[in-house]
Amino acid sequence: MSVLIVTSVGDLVVDLHTDQCPRTTYNFLKLCKMRYYNGCLFHKVAKDFVAQTGDPTGTGTGGDSMYKFLHGDQARFFDDEIHPELRHSKIGTVAMASAGKNRNASQFYITLRDDVEYLHDKHTVFGIVAEGEGLDTLTKINESYVDGEGRPFKDIRIKHTYVLYDPDDDPAQLAELVPPNSPIGKPIDEIAEERLEDTWVPLDETVDPVQLEEMIRSKEAHTNAVILASIGDIPDAKVKPPDNVLFVCQLNPVTQDEDLYTIFSRTVTSAETICDYKTGDSLCYAFIEFEAKEACERAHRDMQNCLIDARRIHVDFSQSVSKLWRQFRQGTRNANKDGCFKRHAPDYRARDLDKGAEKKNKNRDYVLRDENTQRGGSNRRSYDLVFDEDGASADNRQDCRNADRRKIQKLDDWRSEASHKRDRDRTNRDRNNREKLHISEEGGRRHDGHISYHGSSDRSYSRRNNSDYGKHQSKSRRRDD
């Protein structure tokens, strides 16, 4: 008895040991007739060891025997049929993958090398792959790429099973279990993780090498564009340079935009020589924009190696997207007013960069106030930013500035008046002190009549009074400062 197993990588012809293992071979043959194995994955491949299949769930934990379909759930498993003469001595040995002793269902494995002594007397050996009828298929299965759990990254499935010869009669229930059409694709019960389908074929096997190289370059270019877009170097990964712009280099430094307009006179919309942003000198290359793509292509064909101002120019299609990048960052509102590739207006030059500074700050919403002017007297100069109200008109701002000036004038007047008042108070205090000193001197003379005593007392009192007055004067000066 033999069974043909058609897999996604080739065919296998299995010869069965029906005499030694009648129960096991009966189970296998009837499951093949039921198309039970159609679509089952080789869910585990151990290189140079075994390849395991027969589980419709694709996980290695499922599968039912034929006896369950005939007799119910209690007959899901059947007993082992281990014989000493049936060994795992040759490549292609077929045996039952049981969940334990006497727990055989539908799963089976095929050895991938000779003398797998580890499995002797542990599992029921019920068949072997015929020589010349599938060994190359076993080689392909053995060389498949697998993950850490042994499952191939590309699915290997059993497509169909054909019973070539069966000596046993079919049970009556089998007719109801056989589907009218042979199942194709995944089993209904499969719950395994999706991988590359068994129909997947690498591109190098289906595509011309030149076309394949072009596809690889295109994908690399797209990947690089996505990276540049993610870091903000280009506006979008799908951006393309304009097809109506020419890049002209090797120009003479004396060549100006007007010269290029005259030379490239075929529907030219802009001709711009690029200059150094510091010195304003020509960098000897330019961008010329045409109205139509056809005019640009004609100019590219006719103007190559032309002599301009004693220089042989080189012309090529532009690869710059600076205009698109500027439109992306600044909006397209004034895009038509700008030049093709310059930062500002078409007459932009590096030496004109400072001319727009006054216009740029003309309508600013803040004024600079000099602290030295406001608060007076200090050599330190610092500035405060005073923001006007949003939407205020120029007249309102002028009124605010006039009001500030009036406040500053009032502050200065108040300080001046306070200074004069302090001077008057100091003069009055000096006059009172002198009067008190004169009265005390006269009282001393009237009280004692001793000129020498009073003279000495007057001098000491005068020194104390002068000392107090000096201290008061120094404090007044420090306070004034």
TrEMBL record:
Catalysed reactions, semicolon-separated = [protein]-peptidylproline (omega=180) = [protein]-peptidylproline (omega=0)
EC number in record: 5.2.1.8
Q: Which keywords has UniProt assigned to this entry?
A: Isomerase, Nucleus, RNA-binding, Rotamase
Q: Where is the composition biased (Basic residues)?
A: 472-481
Q: Which GO terms describe its cellular component?
A: nucleus
Q: Where is the RRM domain?
A: 244-320
Q: Where is this region: Disordered?
A: 351-389, 412-481
CDD domains tied to this protein: cyclophilin_RRM, RRM_PPIL4
Where's the PPIase cyclophilin-type domain? Answer: 7-163
Q: Report the sequence similarity comment from the record.
A: Belongs to the cyclophilin-type PPIase family. PPIL4 subfamily.
Question: What is the protein name for this chain?
Answer: Peptidyl-prolyl cis-trans isomerase
Organismal lineage: Eukaryota, Viridiplantae, Streptophyta, Embryophyta, Tracheophyta
